[in-house]
Task: structure prediction
Amino acid sequence: MNERWIDVSAHNGTIDWAKAAASGIRGAILRAGYGNSVSQTDSQFKSNISAAAAAGLKTAVYWFGYADSESDAMAEWSVCKQVIEPYRGSILFLAYDYEYASVNYYRKMHGTAPSNELINSMVGTFLGAAKKDGWNPVLYLNNDYRTNIYSAETLGLWDLWLADYSAGPDVACAVQQTSNSGTVPGISGTVDLDIVFHDFSKTATSVQIDTTMDLSRPHGQYYTVKTVCPQQVSVTAGTGGIVTIVPFPKSGNEQLFALVAVGFTGTETGIYTAAPGEKPLKRFIFRVT
Result:
């Protein structure tokens, strides 16, 4: 996969999305906002996501981080989630952008720069919460942050959106930001250009789930999973004869499913969720002990 995308914010003004789409742009990463207050929602986000979708473009979002602690990163996620939740069905992935302006803000507030350990921890807090809530999390970074800030563990946990303006990305990534000075019909001035390599549509889901870690239960015992989705959710096992899935009645957007261990000791299967029209997404592994 190799698709031409752009990433935009209120700084790009009002966009003629039909012209952008006609020029060959396939999708857009839209800034939803920044910081830890709903008042910091990007002023063009709602119009951008509606108009881009109407023009037939794929959409994703990013949140610019100014967190100064893990709890603040969680507060940012809480606000971000509130802003983007109404558009969950059309958002293929969610990126978190913590970079130079973020560090400068921290230095202004605390008199010193945040440690690498803290940056890694805050990024992990935000993206981990997003993943738990069923979003496709992506880490935005450049080669400076890749080599000097983020740990190997952090880099291995998330799909990467790499700002690399050379001919090709220095490392494998899901998205490459190829320029911050591109031109696209329908947009006044310059715009960031991107290439999306990963097919996020294969993993996009509107189903939130309270369990993302692998688990095990003895034969005959069960585990209860909670899903949250406006639509009817299906929960399935990848391999038959290992777990029996018993749905409880739905209450509002929430529904419980009991996973009963019926297989032989040592057997395991993937557990998948899907809303209508979605491809099943593997959420965790269930083992019989």
Notes: Residues 3-202 form a domain with the TIM Barrel fold (CATH 3.20.20.80). The CA atoms of residues 60 and 245 lie 33 Å apart. The chain has seven helices and 16 strands. The mean pLDDT is 95.
